[in-house]
Amino acid sequence: MVRKRFQAQEPKTGLYYAQNFLKKIGLGKENYYFWKQIGKALLCTYAIAGAVWLYNETSPLGWWTLKPRPKEEWELAHLYEYRQFPYPGDEEAMQEFIAKGGMIGTTIGPKGTIETDKDALNYQKQLQDKKFEQEALKMWMRMRNEVIGELQEQDFDLE
Question: Which residues, listed in sequence order, are joined to residue 115 by a DSSP beta bridge?
């Protein structure tokens, strides 16, 4: 019989030390069932969170998303409707949409009534007129302030 100390022992390799370390930190073979359960729980949790996120982004119930809305929007939501835009490939619907005013110059008033009295050119002209009025008002105020300043230098009481 060979003495025990002379029997050939398997050399301790890096794999042995790695397995020993993993067992010490709770990742050994005997902990497999525990980590399997943790993995299932994480998978289910992330699946539910992903489904809720996707539903929130693409909700068929436009009035029931998880995004909070300000009080003003919540109170006035019944006054406005969502405007449907045509699919870009549908030529007939695009022509009809542009004929009604398209994107430029259309306004949607209360109860979803579309005010189509503005066409694109008229809208551009209104913008230019508004800008012109603002510049004229600025120039008028500047000239008025200059005159008031000059009169106050000459000791006139304007108040």
Answer: 107
